[in-house]
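To: structure desk
From: M.T.
Subject: fold request, one chain
Message: Could you run this one when you get a chance? Sequence is below, nothing fancy, just the single chain.
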Amino acid sequence: MNIKGFLRIIFYLISVINAISCIVLLCIICPRVENLGFDYMGVVVAILALLVTLLIGWNIWSIIDIKGIRKEFEFLRSDIQSKDDYLHSKSDYNMALMFGRTSQMVACSLTGLGKEEQKIEMLYSAITSIKMFVNQSCKKECNSILATTIEAMKATNEILLSEDSIDELLLMIGEIQQRESIPLLNDLVLAIRNCKKLGNG
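Reply: Done. Structure tokens follow.
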């Protein structure tokens, strides 16, 4: 407690003591006269009691730090919002990781199978994962997914895709932000274009 707060408490205590002393002195000096029709002592005591009540109430109001409570509330609300944003971000990261791992698993199982649908699913999962990782600024994960996918494309070059499928995949890549910061994306685009079926456009 600082000196200013201590002096304020002393001031309030002295004020209360003075008020009580005034009441006692008035009762001694001016006793109640029974034949009067108006109880002036009761009015005086009521007024003094009201003043004491107001003084105590103001003291309580001064002790309560309204601005401090409001500031603490704003801090708590900001903290809750930041935790909520973190949870959403973590959820997006886990979803992107799931897509990435799915694409890698499909890529590993594709070798020698020669199935166009599985190759499209592998590319779709990889591109979706990369798009989400870019939004999370996770370049390391992006490069890992891209490297695995490009190797799978080389190992399955005999599995050709239709022009419509290739156009859809390239359109998905075009929606990825900051593509210039991920050089391996160009290799993936080239690999997808090179697996086009002949006679489809």
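Reply (cont.): The chain has a mean pLDDT of 75. Let me know if you need anything else for the meeting.
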